[in-house]
Design goal:
Oligomer: single chain
Distance between the termini: 49 Å
Number of helices: 21
Helix content: 25-40%
Shape: globular
Largest sheet: 9 strands, mixed
Strand content: 25-35%
């Protein structure tokens, strides 16, 4: 939304006050002539020798002209879909020219902008600041590894086009550390690595991981008349034993590029680096980039098979984004610098379709078994079908509100809806699209057919081609005529009490709820130390017995249970997950409510939860006499 001045002041006094107050910052644009050119780039030296203690020093030489000059810190970060630039991590800013300190001042409206008056005869500013690397919920380094997102460690000229601002980046690593990045032209001398000159958009799109314990694994290489290309898996661990993963798993990850090339029929990267940190201290995360990805996972992600079962789409999801999100991108999510706000309404394509495709690639590669997909899909569907927020909020509101929903915290997230719904419901939406195409063409075409058109031409470098909703519907109609506009209108743009459901029967399956545990839920409960009672009592419980959410309209809701309460005892026994499940089974044969002793804010209460349905888990079961479309979708589509 544009920042506007008042239309009028009601009196001379108000006119005077309006005139004398601080001037609003100018609306961000990309029209400024860039002083940092390819032949005279801005230099950036990142001293990361203290990153193990959470500190780095960034030193820039910024080309300038005499007079007023504004430099900015990146605010809207691609892939993070919001104004997430961690401005609070910028400290100890120093500005000088020809060795003489200069005064600088922060803009009073746009706090990401900094002003300085450049003296006559000066053609470059030296700017330095200390990077505070870690914060609550935003840990980027440990004593043994670090993640470098370049947008966090630089300033650049305000209102310049990021494709026309050039940087010469360098990093000084801790002694004995290795690194991984897609940045071109690395030249290492001791602990310092200098990279080739690149435009700012490419620099920000090329994160760097580094660490003491590492493995660099070539997953794929092609050398032919079209040139050479390769894919790397660069793994950095907090502990050396977490690098002792099996060759079989590596072989499955080596299927990523062949399966993705078969899926899309194209390639829009030259050399791709899947960066992966293994650390319990760093939160689970995946952020896409055109020729790399920033993947963060627990210590045992590659050594515990349950981790791959539960989250084996982490790397494949971000890899798929090279095609869907980086090469093809919503027209209003493509901005020419990092101060111009992004619009996220089309995330149901960017992230929603990619959730489906990332999962699909993970099953086709063998990272997860194709036969396990129905169990996973049952959980996805039941999760969306039991979310109360969908009764009032359409998916389009969730996508549009994503910049704040990604950062939202607080109770009753299932009522508010979350940015995660874009992904989870997106999987169901695009599976429905895939199944419609397959049904209407008797299996001769599929979403793969659409993706070949969507990601054409066959081979380019890392460039971006934008799309609109109309473009997506037009391409789908090229694959198979259908009222795609009405389809998306119903499932995305209008309130939908249930997620897309027709694909289940169309694919030869139906959803049932039984007392038999779903293995996917079991894996998540074990790995994340949670108790999943969402479909029965209507609560989710953390490892210490804290209630994290209560489903509106559930038995627990009716009894007055609320997030933040801690379960102390169930029917007189000290709470544990096993005790709760035992009591749940007993209540199925009783009319007596389950008695929960809960504690909140120093007070104890007894809540009687009237539930007698037993343990409840979702499953998909086959419809007799139908084709198993899910098996066809998840089967490998390229030679392994």
């Amino acid at each position: 939304m544009k920042r506007l001045l008042p239309l009028s002041c009601a009196s001379a006094l108000l006119i005077s006050l309006c005139a004398s107050g601080p001037s609003p910052a100018a609306e961000p644009n990309s029209n400024a002539h860039s002083y940092a050119t390819e032949s005279n780039p801005e230099t950036l030296v990142l001293d990361a020798r203290n990153v193990g203690r959470g500190l780095m020093t960034a030193t820039m030489r910024i080309p300038v002209k005499p007079g007023p000059f504004t430099f900015v810190y990146p605010k809207w970060v691609p892939g993070e879909h919001g104004p997430t630039g961690p401005l609070a991590n910028v400290s100890e800013i120093k500005v000088s020219a020809d060795g003489k300190p200069l005064d600088w001042r922060r803009d009073q409206v746009d706090m990401y902008a900094f002003h300085v008056d450049v003296p006559r005869g000066v053609d470059a500013l030296d700017v330095q600041f200390t990077v505070l690397v870690n914060g609550p919920g935003d840990v980027m380094s440990t004593p043994n590894l670090a993640i470098v997102n370049w947008n966090r460690v630089l300033f650049y000229q305000a209102d310049a086009n990021s494709h026309e601002v050039y940087f010469k980046p360098s990093i000084i690593l801790p002694d004995g550390w290795s690194y991984g990045t897609a940045l071109p032209g690395p030249e290492q001398s001791g602990q310092r690595v200098d990279f080739a000159v690149v435009p700012l958009n490419m620099l920000v799109d090329s994160p760097l991981d580094c660490g003491r314990y590492y493995k660099h694994i070539e997953l794929w290489r092609q050398d032919d008349v079209k040139g050479s290309a390769y894919q790397m898996l660069d793994v950095f661990a907090d502990k050396p034993q977490d690098l002792d993963f099996k060759d079989k798993l590596v072989a499955e990850y080596k299927n990523m590029t062949p399966q993705a090339l078969a899926l899309y029929g194209s390639r829009h990267w030259n050399d791709y680096h899947a960066l992966l940190t293994l650390s319990d201290a760093i939160g689970f995360q995946g952020i896409e980039h055109h020729q790399s990805s920033d993947n963060r996972a627990p210590d045992d992600f590659l050594t515990n098979p349950k981790e791959q079962y539960a989250d084996g789409d982490l790397v494949t999801h971000e890899f798929s984004h090279s095609w869907n999100g980086k090469y093809r991108r919503p027209y209003d999510l493509f901005t020419l610098n990092f101060q111009i706000p992004e619009q996220t309404d089309l995330l149901w394509v960017y992230e929603g379709m990619n959730q489906y495709l990332g999962d699909l690639i993970s099953f086709r590669t063998g990272i997860r078994k194709p036969s396990d997909y129905p169990q996973y899909l049952a959980v996805v569907y039941s999760r969306m079908a039991s979310e109360p927020g969908r009764n009032t909020e359409p998916l389009i509101d969730t996508t549009t509100a994503a910049p704040y929903l990604y950062e939202a915290h607080g109770d009753y997230s299932s009522i508010r809806r979350t940015a995660g719904d874009v992904y989870t419901e997106g999987e169901l939406l695009w599976l429905d699209v895939d199944s419609i195409i397959r049904e209407k063409t008797d299996g001769k075409k599929s979403l793969d057919t659409f993706l070949h058109l969507y990601s054409a031409p066959t081979l380019t470098g890392p460039i971006t081609k934008t799309y609109t909703r109309a473009d997506i519907e037009h391409l789908l109609n090229e694959v198979v005529p259908y009222d795609w506009h009405a389809f998306f209108q119903k499932h995305v743009y209008e309130v939908a009490p249930l997620p897309p459901t027709d694909e289940l029967a169309r694919a030869g399956w139906k959803l049932v709820y039984t007392s038999e545990p779903n293995p996917y839920i079991e894996a998540v409960e074990t790995l994340r130390h949670v108790d999943y009672q969402w479909l029965s009592y209507g609560i989710n419980v953390s490892k210490d017995g804290a209630v994290t959410d209560v489903r509106e309209g559930s038995p627990a809701w009716a009894a007055g249970m609320a997030p933040g309460m801690k379960l102390i005892a169930v029917d007189g026994q000290a709470y544990s997950s096993d005790v709760l499940k035992y009591v749940e089974d007993q209540a199925e044969h009783s009319t007596t409510p389950t008695e929960f002793l809960v504690q909140a804010d120093g007070w104890y209460r007894t809540l009687n939860v009237d539930y007698h349905g037993g343990q409840k888990y979702p499953h998909l079961v086959r419809l007799p006499g139908t084709t198993d479309m899910l098996a066809e979708i998840m089967a490998p589509h390229a030679a392994e």
